[in-house]
Known about the structure:
The complex is a heterodimer. By secondary structure, chain A is mostly beta strands. Chain A contains no helices and 21 strands. In chain A, the strands form 5 sheets. In chain A, strands 8, 11, 12, 14, 15, 16, 17 and 21 form an 8-stranded antiparallel beta sheet that branches. In chain A, strands 1-2-3-4-5 form a 5-stranded mixed beta sheet, with no helix packed on it. Chain A is elongated, with a radius of gyration of 26 Å. Chain A starts with a strand and ends with a strand. In chain B, the strands form 6 sheets. A 7-stranded antiparallel beta sheet of chain B has the order 1-11-3-5-6-7-15, with no helix packed on it. Chain B has a 7-stranded antiparallel beta sheet with strand order 4-29-28-27-25-33-23, with no helix packed on it. In chain B, strand 30 (about 360-365) and strand 31 form a beta hairpin. Chain B has no helices and 34 strands. Chain B has strands at about 5-10, 15-20, 30-35, 45, 50-55, 65-70, 80-85, 90-95, 95-105, 110-115, 125-130, 135-145, 150-155, 165-170, 180, 180-190, 195-200, 210-215, 225, 235-245, 245-255, 265-270, 275-280, 290-295, 300-305, 315-320, 320-330, 330-340, 350-355, 360-365, 370-385, 385-395, 400-405, 415-425. The radius of gyration of chain B is 21 Å and the shape is globular. Classes of the chains: A mainly beta, B mainly beta. The interface between A and B is medium-sized, with 50 and 18 residues.
Amino acid sequence: MTIQYRANRVISGESGDTRPGTNTIVDTVFLETDTFKRYAWNGEEWIQYETLAMPFTNKTISAETNTISDLQLTSIFAQNAKRTGAIVPACTAADSLTGHLRGMTVNGDGTPTWSIDPTEGPVLAFARAASGIMGYTSAGTTDAMVTRRALNPYLKIRFKLSSISSTRLYIGFTSATALPNTDTPLATNESGVIFGYTSADSDFSVYYNDGQGGAMAEVETGVVKDVLYHTVSFQFGASNVIVILDDGADTKTQTLTTQIPATTTDIKLSIIGAF
Amino acid sequence: MVLSFKTGSFTSRTTTGTDTVTGVGFTPKVIILYTTAGGAESTYAARFTLVFGGAIDTTAANQQAIFATSRNSGATSYAEEAFQSASAYTYVDDATITATGVISAIGADGFTMNWTLNDGVAKLIYFICIGGADIISTKAAEFTSPTSGTTGNQVTTGVGFQPDFLILYGTSEAGATADYSCVWCLGFAKSSTEQASLSGVALDGAATMDTARYQRGDNSKCYMLFSDASTTTKALEGNLVSMNADGFTINWTTVGAAGASKKIAYIALKGGNYHIGAITAPTAGTAPVSQATTGAGFQPAGIMMLSCGATANTAINTNMRLSVGAGSGSTDRRVGWAGDKDAVADTANSRIMLPDKIIKVATENATAANTTTQAEADLTSLDSDGFTLSWTTRDTNAYEVIYIAFGSSAAAKTLYIAKAFFKADG
Lengths: 275, 426
């Protein structure tokens, strides 16, 4: 960027710009527009003497290491205090739901156990030999995992199912109290967005419906279902739902704009494998 | 993890004392004994006889047996039956228990039968042994059918676990007794949608032979007893409603006076994989006709095959016939068959036990050696999703054959969650 000469012996530019040197008048000020630091020329070098306090809006923190300290919330009820929850498996035999995910219920067979995956680290495992459902569900109407599109919910999960033979994988949100062990995860009167596969699918797919009486819609990601770890994210917004599988390239990103849950329809999080 | 299945045979001693059976290859957790004949193997003999018993260990209370016979008695029928507690094998003569076998020891390669009562006649006995780590729990016990007219659900408790599979068997006896009747039932159940039953009756003291059979391979019934006074009347019939945490529930749709308060033995198993189905014998092709059956959902370790020798239907059929076979492979299979003709002036019944077949359909004859084989099959193989038979004899009738596949437990499927993060406004 080219430095700019301003009034009153002020020069502006970015931190990487070349500044004037020897012939500069002493006490000339250089303002870095990207860092808000101010320097003064002492006849030999530019000396930083202050950093302006500037509002931090619309900025991207993209460096590998950043330190942000002394943050203060202006209000504990501000929109930056969002409902959050996580599954970060700890090295215990029990589940490790934290935050608002604590409201979820184990669905199906037994208590999850933990194991160490050589690449993923500690992982939670639900296992069953007899047919049925395993995983987490939000069956209640008021538990913590009930949300709605108007609240811009976001979910990201890393998962795998050990068999694709006659199995179903359903991860997502439904207005029903539970996801079924059938190849129709969303009925005509149910709202939701579900990622996974039915026993008949060949690819990972996204199923969605608005509960208005029509059959659920389905779109394939183009990724053949397998028993490997994958990551999927859901971002619900004012006008759409974006479902991203892994790197999101091509059809691995699905932006759903029609037949999606209404903004005020309650939907519940479920993460299940079934067969 | 595995489920083991083996068939075999032994000939009983003729005095009290023990018979030791080896060669099973594993420690049996369930022993099923059955006999349809009393003479030499592979040789027809007169008389319809069924002995069926089971044990899960050496405890007397965990062994039950039934006996049903229609003798080669000429102008007047002679029928006998028994239900015996505390034994895995029983034999009757003149409505009196004359032989009692108790499983007295179980070892790593077989079992021992202690004859506490012996009638001096050697008996060829077929057995089925089931074992392996997949069999988590077993229970052998007995219960009583409801009182007359009490239809509806009957809940049997005390099993100690939720069964995955049930074998039911009984006669028209109300206690551990013997009598002049020949009424029997063998039933099998896995769930409300997988169950089967086979039943037979021969009236005692009839001048014209009066016998019948009934088979349900349509997954709708698990038990039926004829009336001991009428071969056209069902005295007791029910279907499995559910397996429960401590037992099972049977819905009795018929409970007549002749079927009320009757002893029913059961063997319950937990662990392993089971499938109950029905096939029809081929009606075309030059024997041997190969028939592959799929749909078990797993590779069986063994199968039982049973038939009353009729085509699939829900009606009572005349003539009492039964084929009980089992096998774990092409060199380990055997079948017992017996039949008793209806509506003849003199008895015409016959039986045979074969070490090289798994199912037999035949028509009895007054001269046992003249029994006609309608259809007969050997076990070729146990396959990834079922089994293959070789019908060495067939005719043009589509005989219904019930099968029960026994297999190892399915491998567990696992859902893994490495990480998850959720956030929402508000």
